[in-house]
Amino acid sequence: xxxxxxxxxxxxxxxxxxxxxxxxxxxxxxxxxxxxxxxxxxxxxxxxxxxxxxxxxxxxxxxxxxxxxxxxxxxxxxxxxxxxxxxxxxxxxxxxxxxxxxxxxxxxxxxxxxxxxxxxxxxxxxxxxxxxxxxxxxxxxxxxxxxxxxxxxxxxxxxxxxxxxx
Length: 166
Prior knowledge:
The chain is of the alpha/beta class. 28% of the residues lie in helices and 22% in strands. Helix 1 (25-34) crosses helix 5.
């Protein structure tokens, strides 16, 4: 990996839709991190998926992607931290518009690993409602914004450690 091409910065990308209830949680977490004005952190709020993530993370040393997840396995509002490798079983040969983020990152690394982040982490918030058109999140998910922001801050502190192992 060519270290000279990576900015010594982190990008925090909140994904979601501001008008689909709990799907806005990634956006809200990214906005909360942005409000802190951290000098080595860029924040984005996007309604994207698939390969569109590659140019957004390119050139950063670290990336954190925050998004809603609906598994039914966790209580709504649960904050989960994943590595892209956690999704290896979901990486598949699918049309680009159906591609998940793990597949997109794997492709980005194959195309030009020198501009892809050294470390990419996903923070997911288990949600309750992705179907209702509303600018309001459900109460448990809205209450998860601060813990999810704190998870971002924890990862940032890990990235900044000279002896990091994450």
